[in-house]
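Thread title: Can someone regenerate the structure for this chain?

I was given the following input by a collaborator and told the matching structure tokens would be attached. They weren't. Posting the sequence so someone can regenerate them.
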Amino acid sequence: EKFQRGIFYARQGNYSIARERFLTALRYRVMHYGSKSLEVAMVHEMLGHVEYFMRIEDQDDLISCSDDDCNGEGDSRSWNVVTAADSERTSGKEKLGQVHADRAAMHYQSALDILDCNQLDWSDSSRTLKSFSEHVGNLQFSWTGVSQSYTELDDEDRMFEVLARIRERMDSLPATAGKSTSSFLRTIS
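Best answer:
Regenerated them for you:
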């Protein structure tokens, strides 16, 4: 299945190929299960993580680009040309990073909307989202773990784990990412 291939490529760090597989899986799952299915929410979350990691890769490329290209060597006549090219490439990378952040926020929000639509019980006062966020923050990210958490969503702890994981990622995105959508999670904490 395309979803499993997406996980395979994501584990390998081939995020653009993983994104293609997850997008195909999303299309098939919407056609098969409907748009409000937990299976669809799971793919949206995976796409959010892929976009999140693609944004991080772009930031790393941007940092290494500026370190390597602007080392002060060469003659001063070509410095203005090099600086203009570097600034153009830098702004392109920054824009691409923002695109990935916006897409990640959109997919995370879609997953949250589906979870809310399925009327999961958020009212358990014995658990707080903050305590689960701290717990999830200490865990190492696992692509397989994300998909397994959806198969066990009947377990209340798993539900809060999913919410905390998404909240942690959304909170780490820049404030401008997805600012046209309001986060469901921010209203329940």
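The radius of gyration is 19 Å.
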